[in-house]
């Protein structure tokens, strides 16, 4: 109800209204919802002005950005195979499970297994 009939170009004002309107502030659900609406408002403004959002926010800061990829799987062989595929499409940085079944690395065997998996990846 807070946004219906409001001017979508008043992005900062609407953000403040959404954030301050409720009793509970700043939780992950509220902030995720506000973030989605905020992105939509910037997209609307960009379309109205026929300009990409990055230009509305001040232009380029850098020419490229390094990205990493998540490698799913609990078994070392699956992780290693997944990384091979991702390397083929250009990734060189990865986030992965350090142990099987997303457990704790709380003993020397688990540490050795994680080190062995990383060694095979390198």
TrEMBL record:
GO biological process: amino acid catabolic process
Acetylation recorded as keyword: no
Pfam families: MR_MLE_N
Domain Mandelate racemase/muconate lactonizing enzyme N-terminal: 2-58
Superkingdom of this protein's organism: Bacteria
Keywords linked to the UniProt accession: Lyase
UniProt-recorded Gene Ontology molecular function terms: lyase activity
Protein name listed in UniProt: D-galactonate dehydratase
């Amino acid at each position: 109800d807070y946004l219906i009939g409001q001017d979508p170009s008043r992005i900062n004002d609407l953000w403040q209204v959404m954030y301050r309107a409720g009793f509970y502030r700043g939780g992950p659900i509220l902030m995720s919802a506000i973030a989605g609406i905020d992105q939509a408002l910037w997209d609307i403004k960009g379309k109205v002005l026929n300009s990409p959002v990055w230009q509305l926010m001040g232009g380029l800061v850098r020419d490229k950005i390094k990205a990493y990829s998540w490698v799913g799987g609990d078994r070392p062989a699956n992780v290693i195979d997944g990384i091979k595929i991702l390397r083929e499409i250009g990734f060189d940085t990865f986030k992965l499970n350090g142990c099987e079944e997303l457990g704790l690395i709380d003993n020397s065997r688990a540490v050795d297994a994680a080190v062995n998996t990383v060694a095979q990846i390198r």
